[in-house]
Specification:
mainly alpha, 126 residues, single chain
Length: 126
């Protein structure tokens, strides 16, 4: 009788272990990574609000993105450095006072965000 109770106890203990019966999803999650240029565009049109003054090919308040990219490329200058407030304006210095208020926004951005903005601006270069 003791043998029977011991055997049943062992089977009961073994059957109590927790097993997960999760199935793999039918449609696995797909992780889409954002390119640097896509992030730059998102910041340009959103958080940075750059689109209010800059357009891809047309000068509005500030110079076009094409013009900015071309001048920075020709002068081998650094857009990120300007956006951090660490270098002088080279595209349209007469408009610097207008841009200066927006530098308060760009100075709070991470290096990754500023590099993404730079990549997006350069992507408009033709």
């Amino acid at each position: 009788m003791k043998y029977l109770i011991a055997t049943i106890s062992v089977f009961l203990l073994l059957s109590c272990k927790k097993e997960s019966h999760e199935k793999e999803p039918l449609y696995p999650k797909i992780i889409v990574s954002q390119t640097t240029e896509q992030l730059g565009k998102e910041i340009f049109e959103g958080k940075g609000n750059c689109v209010a003054c800059h357009q891809p090919v047309q000068k509005i308040v500030g110079p076009s993105m094409q013009q900015i990219a071309q001048i920075y490329k020709d002068k081998n200058a650094n857009i990120v450095s300007f956006l951090k407030g660490e270098s002088e304006p080279i595209v349209d210095p007469s408009q610097y006072e207008v841009m200066k208020t927006n530098l308060a926004i760009t100075k709070t951005m991470s290096d990754q965000e500023l590099e993404a903005l730079e990549a997006y601006i350069y992507s408009n270069l033709k």
